[in-house]
């Protein structure tokens, strides 16, 4: 088994439970994004056997990263909710300049792209009116309606594996199920996990070829939508300010740390492309 792919997968898994930096962004930065897209396309074709040496260790790393890091996120959400949310905000805002560069916004954005970006951001903001409010760490109350909502969250979150800049955790935050999903992993809430995994699995199968197509055929518009999603998610992730000086100071520090990490990851990808390096 390819140890390097296990490591890359673990990085992708960890990033996908932290709002802001997506698994797709990590794949871009470590130089396996194009191979990932190609493998996903080939997985649903007669060339499936050729994809397995790449996808199996990568998937194992992703699952391992998610399981290993979930308890850390859960503890932080319970004991330092406000600073953690500001860290997430920093990550989200820090990755946006990278996405504008990936989209070639300076030369390719037109009025229609800006309009779609703004409308997407506003649509995400209005989700807050319908999204159930959750505690930082709590069990998910399953009903018919909440089960469907959780399944839909999994479907949309699955797209983050292939879309640079869109984190699965950000999607779960938009749907108001992030804290409960992390808590369910730790407490092994089988029904919640099964519904979420079913949504992610079905969403990935249904959307993977479509995502690969739109990224190639409608790249600029796709990035306009992704950027709009992230800008809109800032409104949802923002936890407010408690008014306590030390808490505000700590939140500003975590915000700066998150922004710096995401911004430098984007710059690292730019540097690799300019040098023509492929770290995989």
UniProtKB/TrEMBL annotation:
Tagged with keyword Membrane: yes
Recorded superkingdom: Bacteria
Transmembrane segments: 6-33, 54-77, 83-100, 112-130, 142-162, 169-186, 192-216, 223-241, 247-265
InterPro entries registered for this protein in UniProt: VCA0040-like (IPR007163)
Pfam families reported for this sequence: VCA0040-like
Keyword tags: Membrane, Transmembrane, Transmembrane helix
Name of the protein this chain belongs to: DUF368 domain-containing protein
Organism: Bacillus selenitireducens (strain ATCC 700615 / DSM 15326 / MLS10)
